[in-house]
Design a protein that fits this description.
mainly alpha; two-stranded antiparallel ribbon; globular
């Protein structure tokens, strides 16, 4: 009975914590993080390049957005809160995937390309792209679930090594956590999905993971000044101050 009572109390606490977090997370950042997860899952259906030792899918074009959002949220709210936001993105990604699948399997009419090509093959191709396959959704979910934990944990750990909160501190913790997190994300997705969908070799998977992470890191470098300024504005305007005090009181980070 004590175990059940503790479990019930924990569930109630987590639900209350989640509700409080949602009230304090800046909505634009939440939308950015969620939208990037949905888009990179769709874009992963298309190759960007495919050479002998190098292959990339188009998911890397937007995946950096989610890592930028996680870095900002980790700096302000802590790793635990940032991971929860990442999992919100996963939830809505699964929700959208279910909706896409429903549209794909139901005969709701023709896509626009059907009339351009005058062929039912166009409908099948688009339905397969949006409807997806279970291993694409599974691969993206597993990869992002693990990489978000890696990214946020490293980011917070590095932040504790600095006394101040300068731009140098922000960039070091963001760049290191991003490159490690992105390599983990790309590698997991490549092994689960790209080897099946595109027939990538082991060398292509490793090259894709590293090169894709470097491109995503470059995007982070370009937009990190914006992320830093946003974080400073959050601090100045005391965004999420109540939740931060609450997290400190309960030692959540």
């Amino acid at each position: 009975m004590k175990t059940i009572s503790k479990l019930k109390s924990r569930i109630i606490f987590e639900v209350d914590d989640f509700k409080m977090l949602l009230r304090h997370i800046p909505p634009i950042t939440l939308v950015l993080a969620t939208l990037s997860v949905i888009l990179m899952n769709l874009f992963a259906n298309k190759e960007f390049v495919n050479y002998k030792y190098l292959a990339l899918d188009c998911g890397f074009l937007v995946s950096w957005m989610s890592f930028l959002a996680m870095d900002m949220l980790t700096r302000r709210f802590g790793a635990r809160a940032a991971i929860k936001v990442a999992y919100i993105g996963i939830f809505f990604n699964l929700l959208c995937a279910a909706l896409f699948k429903l549209i794909a399997i139901c005969n709701f009419g023709n896509w626009g390309e059907f009339y351009n090509l005058n062929s039912p093959t166009a409908n099948d191709a688009i339905n397969n792209t949006f409807g997806g396959n279970w291993y694409i959704l599974f691969g993206s979910t597993v990869a992002y679930a693990f990489s978000s934990i890696i990214n946020c944990t490293i980011n917070q750990a590095l932040g504790k090594l600095f006394k101040g909160k300068s731009f140098k501190e922000y960039t070091i913790r963001s760049y290191v956590s991003t490159i490690v997190g992105q390599i983990a994300d790309n590698l997991l997705f490549a092994f689960i999905v790209s080897t099946v969908l595109f027939g990538w070799t082991l060398s292509q998977c490793i090259a894709c993971s590293i090169v894709g992470a470097l491109f995503e890191l470059l995007s982070e470098v370009i937009f990190s000044p914006i992320g830093y300024r946003v974080c400073k504005r959050w601090e100045k305007e005391k965004i999420g101050e109540s939740y931060i005090r609450y997290a400190a009181q309960h030692k959540l980070n």
